UniProtKB/TrEMBL annotation:
PANTHER family in UniProt: CYTOSINE DEAMINASE FAMILY MEMBER (PTHR11079), TRNA-SPECIFIC ADENOSINE DEAMINASE (PTHR11079:SF202)
Cited function: Catalyzes the deamination of adenosine to inosine at the wobble position 34 of tRNA(Arg2).
Keywords: Hydrolase, Metal-binding, tRNA processing, Zinc
Binding, Zn(2+): 52, 82, 85
Gene Ontology biological process terms in this record: tRNA wobble adenosine to inosine editing
Gene expressing this chain: tadA
Protein name listed in UniProt: tRNA-specific adenosine deaminase
EC number(s) reported in the record: 3.5.4.33
Family named by the database record: Belongs to the cytidine and deoxycytidylate deaminase family. ADAT2 subfamily.
Metal-binding in keyword set: yes
Cofactor section: Zn(2+)
Amino acid sequence: MLHQDWMRMALEQAQMAFEQGEVPIGAVVVHNGQPIALAHNEREQKNDPTAHAEVLVIQRAAKVLGSWRLKDATLYVTLEPCPMCAGAIMQSRIKQLVYGAMDLKGGATGSVMNVLDYTLWNHRVDVVAGVLEEECADILKLFFRRLR
């Protein structure tokens, strides 16, 4: 499958978040060509500021693999990760991050800052940005338009 195919799966998760009144961000972890974990934002539902799609999907993937090291995994997420999520990506040893829309207010993997590009880290994450960027941005725009 292509990056776009996996991102569509993440967009399905974002749609679920949208329908639950959560900020519509979805994520998928792929390992050996198979999706092993899916998640979307659950901050409102759980009253948990750390219940971002990326953190939840990393936790679920670690359970599936029986290891916190997700070294051969790719994370697909509809919005550029924040600093907290970028840290979780680094700590989980994810091999590749693929995201859709840039977050020009809080993105930490290329736009506002780049947590993953710090030269002293002992792990490198390959980052691919802008996959299905328009579709990923559109669901967020619609959500915030309706919220206002």
